[in-house]
Amino acid sequence: MSGTRTTCPYCGVGCGIRIGSDGAIAGDPDHPANRGRLCVKGAALGETLGDDNRLLHPMMGGARASWDAALDAAAAGLAETIAAHGPDAVAFYVSGQFLTEDYYIANKLMKGFIGSANIDTNSRLCMASTVAGHVRAFGADVVPGIYEDWDEADLAVLAGSNAAWCHPVLFQRLLAARATRGTRIVVIDPRRTASCEAADLHLPLAIGSDTALFAGLLVHLADRGALDSAWIAAHSTGFEAALAVARRDAGSIAAVAEATRLAPDLILRFYTEFAGTERSLTIFSQGINQSASGTDKVNAILNCHLATGRIGRPGMGPFSVTGQPNAMGGREVGGLATQLAAHMGFDQPEAIDRVRRFWQAPAVATRPGLKAVDLFEAVHDGRIKAIWIAATNPVVSMPRAGRVQDALARCPLVIVSDCWPTSTSGLAHILLPAAGWGEKDGTVTNSERRISRQRAFRAPPGEARPDWWMFAEMARRLGWGDRFAYAKPADIFREHAALSGFENEGARAFDIGGLAGLSDEDYDGLAPVRWPVAEARANARLFAGGGFFTADGRARFVATPPRPLAEGTGRARPLRLNTGRIRDQWHTMTRSGSVPRLMAHQEEPFLELSPSDAGKFDVGDGDLMRIETAHGTAILRARASSSVKPGELFAPMHWSADFSSAGPIGRLVGGAADPISGQPELKASAARLAPLPTLWRGLLLGPARPLGAQSFYWARLPVAGGQACTLRGWDPLPAADDLRALAAALLGAPGVALQDICDTERGSYRFARIEQGRLVGCLLIACQSAWPVPERESLVPLLGAEFDAAARGRFALMQRIAAAPTASRKICVCLSVSQAAIEGVIADGRAADPTEIGAVTGAGTSCGSCLPELEALLREARVQAALRPNPLAPLRRAR
Ligand SMILES: Nc1nc2c(c(=O)[nH]1)N[C@H]1C(S)=C(S)[C@@H](COP(=O)(O)OP(=O)(O)OC[C@H]3O[C@@H](n4cnc5c(=O)[nH]c(N)nc54)[C@H](O)[C@@H]3O)O[C@H]1N2
Ligand SMILES: Nc1nc2c(c(=O)[nH]1)N[C@H]1C(S)=C(S)[C@@H](COP(=O)(O)OP(=O)(O)OC[C@H]3O[C@@H](n4cnc5c(=O)[nH]c(N)nc54)[C@H](O)[C@@H]3O)O[C@H]1N2
Ligand code: SF4
Ligand SMILES: [Mo]
Fold first, then answer.
1. pLDDT score for 808
2. Is 148 within 8 Å of 273 (Cβ atoms)?
3. In 812-861, where do the E strands start and end?
4. Three-point CA angle 786, 791, 796, nearest 5°
5. Do 187 and 197 form a contact (C-beta atoms < 8 A)?
6. Tens digit of pLDDT for each residue in 632-658?
7. What is the mean pLDDT of residues 315-326?
8. Burial category of 89 from C-beta neighbours within 10 Å (exposed 0-12, middle 13-18, buried 19 and up)
9. What is the C-alpha separation between 298 and 519, in angstroms, rounded?
10. Residue 385 to residue 78: CA distance in whole angstroms
11. Which atom of ligand 3 is nearest to the CA of 38?
């Protein structure tokens, strides 16, 4: 085969990708994670490779600089800070989107040479509770299962995981198992998510109440004789104590029902399914981890698997899915502030000494560093005076994001490496351009401990360089060049592999010592391999026969008393704000936000609330609402949806201030952290709402750029030839002249006269910037009396189009702008099928299931990511049909 094999840089499924010799991107049929499949994000990767908006050169104080000048200045800044204030006055904040080789170097530099453990990562917001829970129960941070378990389970419990959208290719393996072996699916999520469309049972528990649910399950297992007492006796300790606490707090279905606000029969059905199914797989993610009791939630789940001995055998076990492509690799190198390196911690002096000897390090850190939330607090109050942020965008993704922004604004030295400009890079004193996906070489580890190579297939644009090189160069400038003399990623990987096997002898779970001797050629050709790879256990499931990494080799049950959420609700803030992901966006949108077809699924940020709460506030779909928490305020468009319960709200995490006036939602999210893992509670902030009137609507088409702070709502998306922005105003429109000035400013032509058609009587305004017979951009505004604003799709083709520059021609263009029809949301973005089209074929009886919808419209026949939504539209149609004939239905569809 010609071309390159690599892996997807998005989620932790870790799909293999083939780049054809013509540059075409396709799933790798030989990669064991995906066997050729890709989800819509992976399939659209080619569209993220443009160099348009990339960071191309190092910058200092906003001006272009050479690499030498930028790195010298950064090194001098770090050295001076360390000399004056000690090593703990500097910090690195890195990312699960690093390759393992990047991660290893950054960690080694901070913990071995600078001599502080102030290196933390965005995995603190993501996997920290699972790491802590694994260590408590297993003595090591190990996912016992493998992906084959998803094919071989009879019961799959998705706890706080919306895998249909967040781990789509694995979810499709589950759907295949359901089709072939009848695997039943239970979803435990306060929301009715896309994953619920395939579920046999959905438990919409109260946010934060998982510990009670799983403690109750432990009691049920004990009372129904479903324990594996022989396994418990042979391989664990602490069962009786954990059961006693569970009995005290969740000893009856009634008690669990009260804690979780679930109907007792739902709880009993779940418990009965679990008790009666040997091959039970519990898949968990951020609904579990991102919680102030996240570690206890994890252990409550692990307890149930230990109690039934359902671990490490085919089709069963607890399965934490990793979020980022290399979240697992970061855990292997020890990139969290609470780890040292290669599954060694600060709690054993001999481990610290071992790492010191291996690295020949002058100043190994001897105690944990600051965890993300505390780390940015320390930047805010000046204890940390220099920070290097790489491959993460904390000004958007951290809780209390406004405070993180303030902290960086006050910090004397901020170094940022990224591929694109971001909200965080805007605050950098020194900005380093990073080579991105497809431009750098290294390894990543996916959710099932499988290490795969990422391979370069294009040259980095401009002067962009890989992250490992930047950190190695920094080490050299700080005086440790001989210990960081790597010529290439293979050199780093061999050292990392050797450390994992160094004085290991089976004592540490993470052992890839068997790969320490790879030649450069072997490394280049390395096939995907699952650790441990030291000896006979290679590629095996772990822990079926015990062999835990605790001192006595036994697993630990952990008592998990339920605890209340960190932020209380009350009269002032009666609602709970839950946040998370949508199908087609990746985090802070620095990549996925520039791909038109990925924006087609959800074009704007939104605030989901239950129909009854919408009724209470008398808001309809798309109306503006002000949401306020103790930490911040945002104005979002409401979306009434029966997928959220009364009293709960949901907003996507993705939109930054670059993409909408409503972003980032992180400004509203609280930072209270789990006391053990330090992971913040990102899904349960107390909030209040107030409706705002929509006094005018607008549509802006023009060159791509953020609109910045405005006194109206805006959200932008990429379109062919530029960007489109939706505008909504809650204040009365300014007078026509002021409006003209605003239009000129928004169209990037302050002081330039625009073409306009203004009907002040009706409140309809059309402004166009026309240059040399081409439409550069236009702004359309309509007051209530002149609704609706023409929809975007029919206008986009006019952008950049040439036309007759005479007055009549201009007028005709303006007329066309004014007369454009309305459009509908895209459900299948691969084949561009809209919601209206799908609803149409359902309504006229041409399709009654997803296959038929696919046959008629094509929807769902490419990557399959939208299949759950096709189910949801069918369900919605059935609900509508069961109600009386609805005279408003056609109207609803038209909107
Ligand atoms: N499309 C897409 N996919 C992604 C990503 C992305 O940005 N976009 N990011 C990747 C990353 S880094 C990660 S970490 C994963 C995250 O993958 P997931 O964890 O599946 O995603 P989230 O949407 O953050 O949260 C999952 C669910 O937790 C629910 N939840 C909230 N509170 C609770 C609770 O108290 N209990 C329970 N049981 N559930 C609760 C939410 O309603 C939500 O549906 O996704 C990865 N995949
Ligand atoms: N409210 C709320 N907040 C959340 C979450 C939530 O559910 N709710 N989820 C949390 C979770 S689980 C996660 S993982 C985080 C994710 O949050 P972030 O890590 O902030 O999100 P990304 O947008 O993925 O940021 C990655 C950055 O790295 C850059 N990049 C990509 N490749 C490279 C590279 O090779 N080198 C360098 N130097 N840069 C690169 C990208 O351009 C981007 O700016 O968000 C967390 N924040
Ligand atoms: S499932 Fe995850 S790894 Fe696979 S293509 Fe989609 S985003 Fe990439
Ligand atoms: Mo994550």
1. 64
2. no
3. 826-828, 833-834
4. 130
5. no
6. 999 999 999 999 999 999 999 999 999
7. 98
8. buried
9. 40
10. 9
11. 5
Distance of CA 310 to the CA centre of its chain: 29
Angle between helices 467-475 and 100-108 in degrees, nearest 10? 20
Is pLDDT at 383 greater than 70 in this prediction? yes
Ligand 1: residue of 261, 578, 581, 659 to mutate (most ligand atoms within 8 A of CB) is: 581
Whether 784 has a pLDDT exceeding 70, the answer reads yes
In a mutational test of the pocket of ligand 1, which residue from 166, 260, 297 has the highest number of ligand atoms less than 8 Å from its CB?
166
**Token code pair at residue 157:** 């419990």
Closest alpha carbon to 298 in 547, 541, 131: 131
Instruction: Round to whole Å and give the CA distance between 28 and 30.
Output: 5
H or E element in which residue 103 lies: helix 100-108
Query: Strands 386-390, 624-629: parallel, antiparallel or unpaired by DSSP?
Result: unpaired
pLDDT > 70 in the chain, percent: 95
The DSSP output letter for 719 is E
> pLDDT per residue over 193-239, tens digit each?
999 999 999 999 999 999 999 999 999 999 999 999 999 999 999 99
Other C-beta atoms closer than 10 Å to the C-beta of 675 total: 12
- Of 512, 513, 515, 510, the residue nearest 549 (C-alpha): 510
Instruction: Supply the residue whose CA is at minimum distance from atom 6 of ligand 3.
Output: 39
Task: Look up the pTM and report it.
Answer: 0.93
For 379, the token pair is 């930047």
Q: What is the 3-state secondary structure (H, E, C) of 622-639?
A: CCEEEEEECCCEEEEEEE
pLDDT digits (tens, 9 = 90+) for 47-86: 999 888 999 999 999 999 999 999 999 999 999 999 999 9
Ligand 4 is an ion; residues with CB less than 5 A from it: 126, 323
Ligand 1 contacts (CB < 6 A) are 11, 126, 159-163, 165-166, 188-191, 193, 207-208, 210, 285-287, 323-324, 578, 580-581, 583, 585-587, 683
- Please name the residue whose Cα sits nearest to atom 44 of ligand 1: 162
Cα dihedral 667→670→674→679 (10° resolution): -10
| Rounded distance between C-alpha atoms, residue 712 and residue 115, angstroms | 48
| Ligand 3 probe mutation, 169, 322, 862, most atoms within 8 A of CB | 169
Picking from 723, 725, 706, 700, the residue whose alpha carbon sits closest to that of residue 715 is 725
Per-residue pLDDT reduced to its tens digit, 388-432: 999 999 999 999 999 999 999 999 999 999 999 999 999 999 999
In terms of DSSP H, where are the helices of 277-383? 286-289, 294-307, 327-333, 349-359, 372-380
**Nearest Cα residue to 545 out of 121, 164, 144:** 144
* Separation of alpha carbons 834 and 855, rounded Å: 15
Residue 841 beta carbon below 6 angstroms from any ligand 3 atom: no
Amino acid letter at 185?
I
Question: Could you tell me which of 172, 170, 190 has the C-alpha nearest to residue 180?
Answer: 172
Residue pLDDT, tens place only, 127-171: 999 999 999 999 999 999 999 999 999 999 999 999 999 999 999
Task: Indicate if the pLDDT at residue 810 is higher than 80.
Answer: no
- Under DSSP, is residue 835 helix (H, G, I), strand (E, B) or coil? helix
All domains of the chain, ordered by start, with CATH?
3-48 (2.20.25.90), 59-124+329-476 (3.40.50.740), 128-320 (3.40.228.10), 575-692 (2.40.40.20), 696-816 (no CATH), 826-883 (1.10.10.1100)
Q: How far apart are CA 746 and CA 726, in angstroms?
A: 12
**Sorting pLDDT into bands at 50, 70 and 90, what band is 797?**
confident
Instruction: Classify the C-alpha dihedral 590-594-600-606 as positive or negative.
Output: positive
892: Cβ–Cβ under 8 A, 6 or more apart, which residues? Answer: none
